[in-house]
Amino acid sequence: MVFADLFFLYFFLPVCLICYFITRSTAIRNAVLVVFSLIFYAWGEPVWVSILIVSSLVDYINGRVIEKHPEGWQAKAALAWSLVFNLGVLFGFKYTAFFVENLNNWFGLGIPVPNIVLPIGISFYTFQTISYTVDCYWGKVKPQKNFGRFLLYVSMFPQLVAGPIVRYSVIGEEINERKTTAKDISDGFSRIILGLGKKVIIANNLSTIVTALFGSASNGYENIKTLSVAGTWLGAILVGLWYYFDFSGYSDIAIGLGRIFGFHFDENFKYPFICKTISEFWQRWHISLSSFFRDYVLYLPIFGKRRKYGGLFLVWFCTGLWHGASWNFVFWGLYYGMFIFFEMLIGKKRMKKMPVPLAHIYTKLVIFIGFGIFYFENLGSLGTFFKALVGANGNKLTDTVTQHLFMNNIWLFAAAVLFTMPVIPKIKEKALSAKGTAYFMQSAGILCNAAILVLSSVLLVNTTNNPFLYFRF
């Protein structure tokens, strides 16, 4: 099941809310959320819900062992088992075929490549349970004693299948006891509608244009071979905007749903395209993932010692590989690691002295070329993409297809660029600071939300291009 779906919006969610709010008991509300979360997950993949439950049980037990023997060998064994089990499950489902394919290519072997279906959300919930066990071992959180509450933490449907990666330290107390105010419900629904608009109105339309320019994986990205320089750059920019509105839209919906149920998830995106350095970009983009690798991988001892730059490239290798079992994702991760390495060598003070226009040109070039690397999973097509960026494929500077696509969708592009910047928060801030505007702003907000919800619902009626991008990770 996905959020941007009429069944979810007008049946599943209302029924869930009714069942949730007919009682004031936190225990019963937790049970309602667990039941609806398991239904939500099992709707598309009933078999793999068992992996989710087993994973939750394993780390629930690990947490209890650590609590009982905090200084003993048992705690170390529980931590080790958590890492082996979770990473083993993730590797088995996500990387086995990739590993076998590369063994065959490198050594001329003929090992059959298994066709393993990747359970939705496994990359997210395995990292959540790992972070819980590690934090228990480090003494940052108290282990949860009730398995039902822990299962709620892992399975909660707002963040289950595509994040953000919610740490137990953020919502642990709210699982035990929480309240939902009228403001929580109002802000939560507003955030859901905002995310829905990002996804349905902007991201879905951008994805159609990207496919028209670059082609898709199913056709081998054939379009890139004949695309002009201008078309290639336009496509790379639109890939970045598409991914941003798709994933940040999902995160907005997840955060809004959590707020309605009394949970306060951390922000996952903070207007990343306004960054002036690549390091800043990753402090604003997919924050829950980048902070996970920073806190749990960056300072791992490499060859017996903590190595500053070795840890950096290990983090970015893992970041790339986490996104998919394909070499382009590994290259994408190391590509960003390289630029962050250079920025570390230059130093924060010198980077801040860079003229603002030059800083924006530098970061946007790096970011949008990076999205091209991310998009083309076929390495042959990726090589063609790099040639097309500079016209080395012999194609024209521009072409009529690119021109027509640009002119026919110029208002969509303008809106997409505009909403990557904190325009709406600035308008709200200035309007609310003026006297006598509170009622007007409240009325305007209700009207905007209603318009976005109606338009999104209409677009969803006959849509065939709707799944969230990060489901496949």
UniProtKB/TrEMBL annotation:
Biological process terms in GO annotation: alginic acid biosynthetic process
State the InterPro entries in the record: Ac/AlaTfrase_AlgI/DltB, AlgI, MB_O-acyltransferase, MBOAT_fam
**Where, by residue number, does the polypeptide cross the bilayer?**
6-23, 30-58, 78-100, 107-130, 150-171, 192-214, 226-245, 309-325, 359-376, 405-424, 436-461
**Localized where?**
Cell membrane
Instruction: Identify a single GO molecular function assigned to this protein.
Output: acyltransferase activity
> Keywords for this entry?
Acyltransferase, Cell membrane, Membrane, Transferase, Transmembrane, Transmembrane helix
Which GO CC annotations does the UniProt entry carry? plasma membrane
**Membrane topology qualifier:** Multi-pass membrane protein
Q: Which family does it belong to?
A: Belongs to the membrane-bound acyltransferase family.
Q: Which PANTHER family match?
A: ACYLTRANSFERASE (PTHR13285), PROTEIN-CYSTEINE N-PALMITOYLTRANSFERASE RASP (PTHR13285:SF18)
Can you name this protein?
MBOAT family protein
Q: Which organism does this record belong to?
A: Hominimerdicola aceti
Q: What is the lineage of its organism?
A: Bacteria, Bacillati, Bacillota, Clostridia, Eubacteriales
